Amino acid sequence: MAKELRANPHLVLGLATGRTMEMVYQQVVKLHKESQLDFSLCHTFNLDEYVGLAPTDPHSYRYYMEQHLFSHVNLDKRNTHLPYGLAKDFDSECNHYEQRIKNSGGIDLQLLGIGKAGHIGFNEPLSALQSRTRVKALTPTTREQNAALFGDISKVPHRAFTMGVGTILESRRCILLATGKSKADILAKAVEGPMTSMISATALQWHPRCTVVVDEEAAGKLQATDYYRWIFENEPEWQDFR
Ligand code: GLP
């Protein structure tokens, strides 16, 4: 991400939230403070936002982004975009969001986490593979997964605005991150399983430039690890990361 931003200061970044991303933003903030990584011309678009939460609500994704990234780097706040959680007219908010992405020239680099049921953004099971930004009802699994952050499951909203699978597939490059044992099963299905709208992350198999970054635990159920390791150790593309 830093490499791409240094090469193109006008980079349009697609951002994600969740615990996995916290360590990413920590590193990015460090790079900004210690190696002058410059965000002044960069634009950001987040994947999703809860319906009904104000940007100032500590559980909103706008608040999360302020806490973990926006307030620590030199991003121009006017260039940071998330769907507005309090929007009443869902269709108009979603169309407007898609339009803003288009007007910015499209997303250059999209960061993605993966939910336990295999969602990217909040594209819950059966999300159409060509879907655009819209409101999705959250599954009980997703609400449970995120309940800890709200203190109590009853406080987790039932709906969220989310970029569609089609929106995500249009980004020029994607990076999917997963860590820990609890992601091993779904990660293997997403990467090596058959493509299905039941697991929206499998749609990334269709993306021409998607990189999956995992720790050993999250990689635990993958089949072709010898092949992946060979590529990582031998292909010039990965030289800087070895
Ligand atoms: C939420 C977000 C997803 C994220 C997922 C995983 O559902 N909408 O974008 O990928 O959580 O979160 P975590 O990284 O905390 O496991």
Account of the 3D structure:
The protein has 242 residues and is of the alpha/beta class. It has one domain (2-241): Rossmann fold (3-Layer(aba) Sandwich), CATH 3.40.50.1360. The chain is built from 8 helices and 9 strands. The strands form 2 sheets. The protein has a 6-stranded parallel sheet, covered by helices on one side. A 3-stranded antiparallel sheet has the order 3-7-6. The chain is globular, with a radius of gyration of 17 Å. The model has no long low-confidence stretch (mean pLDDT 97). Residues 16-20, 47-48, 113-115, 121-122, 142, 146 line the site of 2-amino-2-deoxy-6-O-phosphono-alpha-D-glucopyranose (GLP). 2-amino-2-deoxy-6-O-phosphono-alpha-D-glucopyranose binds at residues 16-20, 47-48, 113-115, 121-122, 142, 146.
Number of helices: 8
Rg from alpha-carbon coordinates? 17 Å
Give the SSE string.
Answer: HEHEEHEHEEHEHEHEH
Q: Which ions and ligands are bound to the chains?
A: 2-amino-2-deoxy-6-O-phosphono-alpha-D-glucopyranose
Number of strands: 9
Runs in which pLDDT lies below 50 for 5 or more consecutive residues are none
Under the CATH scheme, which class?
Answer: Alpha Beta
Distance between the termini: 16 Å
| Structural class designation | alpha/beta
Instruction: Let me know the average pLDDT.
Output: 97
Under the CATH scheme, the architecture is 3-Layer(aba) Sandwich
Helix content: 25-40%
Largest sheet: 6 strands, parallel
Give the overall form: globular
Strand percent estimate: 5-15%
How many structural domains does the protein architecture include?
Answer: 1
